Amino acid sequence: MIFTPEILQGRLLKFAQGSMFLTSKLPKNSHNIIYSNQLNRSSSSPGANYIEAIEASSAKEFILKLKICRRETKESNYWLVLIQTSNENLTWLKKETEELIKIFTASIITAERNQKIRKMEK
Fold it and tell me: Mean pLDDT, to the nearest integer, of 23-48?
């Protein structure tokens, strides 16, 4: 499947919104408050960093921002696992983090390969 920047931005927005909706419905106990705050931060970060990646002024900056997106998505996955172990089933959000991590990894590999090719052509 081909992902345009617009499609990926939409998925990242939906993921952040889904995480916010989920955390608003969790019981308000000490661990859920901590996990929710962390998940809300990490799940909204990939979307903002992806916008920065699209606007990057160099291939190096683009790759760096994609790596941040991947790292923050992995962190979101971690918080979802903690929430899942102590609450309800979070299948769709968990699956979405795994798919987003794969997308970012593939994008990073492609961008790094393209960067190497450009250097060799010079």
Answer: 96
